[in-house]
Amino acid sequence: MLKNKLxxxxxxxxxxxxxxxxxxxxxxxxxxxxxxxxxxVMPISTDTGDNIDExxxxxxxxxxxxxxxxxxxxxxxxxxxxxxxxxxSTxxxxxxxxxxxAEVIDSAxxxxxxxxxxxxxxxYGDQYLFDQNISVDKNIDGNLFAMxxxxxxxxxxxxxxxxxxxxxxxxxxxxxxxxxxxxxxxIDFKGSAYDIYAMCDxxxxxxxxTYRDVRATCTNFNVYGTISRNAFINCSNISFVNGDSQGxxxxxxxxxxxxxxxxxxxxxxxxxxxxxxxxxxPSIGSYLLSLGxxxxxxxxxxxxxxxxxxxFKEKTENLVKNKKWAILLIGFLTLIVIPIVSIxxxxxxxxxxxxxxxxxxxxxxxxxxxSVFIITxxxxxxxxxxxxKNIGIFGMLIVTSIIFWALYLxxxxxxxxxxxxxxxxxxxxVVTPLFYRKNEVITDSKNSK
Length: 449
Fold this sequence. Notes:
Blueprint: H1 51-120, E1 122-124, E2 127-130, E3 133-136, E4 139-141, E5 144-153, E6 156-157, E7 161-170, E8 175-183, E9 186-189, E10 192-199, E11 202-205, E12 209-210, E13 214-217, E14 220-223, E15 226-227, E16 231-234, E17 237-239, E18 241-242, E19 245-246, E20 248-249, E21 253-257, E22 272-276, H2 284-308, H3 312-322, H4 324-346, H5 352-384, H6 390-407, H7 414-431, H8 440-448
Parallel strand pairs: 1-4, 2-5, 3-5, 5-7, 6-8, 7-8, 7-9, 8-10, 9-11, 10-12, 10-13, 11-14, 12-15, 13-16, 14-17, 15-20, 16-21, 21-22
Antiparallel strand pairs: 18-19
């Protein structure tokens, strides 16, 4: 297995959950109108002579009555004015109350708008993005899986980020609460993350900050930010200074390179360990040959399964749904028990041929186990995207195989662990059906529904 290369991406499942809120208010205002009506009487006299005095007296009486009437009118006028003032005061209070209510409504509507805007700025669940140019500007409450030519992240990610691209930029406003897994040509890291696993040509920690370790295989490794713990690097060139920018590794640096670099202790607080790269490092041609061989094996196994086991897809889906732990346990036992049994049979002369046949079957199972596991994973991916035709499944299988091939190349024993897990699960998927009746798993699936 080829070593010291890194590549990360897992694919396809999409959940979008958006929350919307509407708030409505209504306010009514009432008004009152008061109308005052007044009538006055003026006596007219046509008498003359002696009757003038009486008339005058009568006039005086009338005048007195008129004065009384005027007084009443004045009082009515004052009362009316007072009423108008009360009405005006009441209307003013109503106006102030209505205005205050409108302000409360506006405030509530503003808060609702801000709340809705905040909800709209978050993706809930894992996000799977595939495009030429990808820009992640909304926060993600889950993991990010992105594949494209250019990927830019300027947001917070609650989980891990798996990115496969030519150019990757992690902006200064980004915060990855989990790990960053990247396979790219250039990586410009300006944000924050817990761990970084990268395979690229140039990795630049550009004023960025990692809370824990950086593990990378690259040509150029530039540290102009902060690595809080350790760095495990396979590279050709290391740089810590770029103009006014200066990087630091708070822990230790363990790196391999063609030649030892002159690294000042001011850039690394812990120890510095150097190992010289072997002159026989794998070439690009050897990687392409390895990938081609891997793809051919997976495709051949897939075609054979289509021919001799056309219902393999359905059966493995039911197995995974209903016998998860059985698959893992049986796969592990198969990996361990068959070699032990074969050795015991070899010790008995009369069972040598049986032992050799068992070992042959064992090595065949080991050889195809990774392919079976990848094919099963690809079938689930095809189901998620509702790809039912074999030509579509075949195309998806090529992409899935390339991704797993890269995962198996991860250095620092991570790739080896992934390979062992794939072999165990692949063995379990092949051997587990032998322990169950033909329709038992399907029946269990129906009953569970």
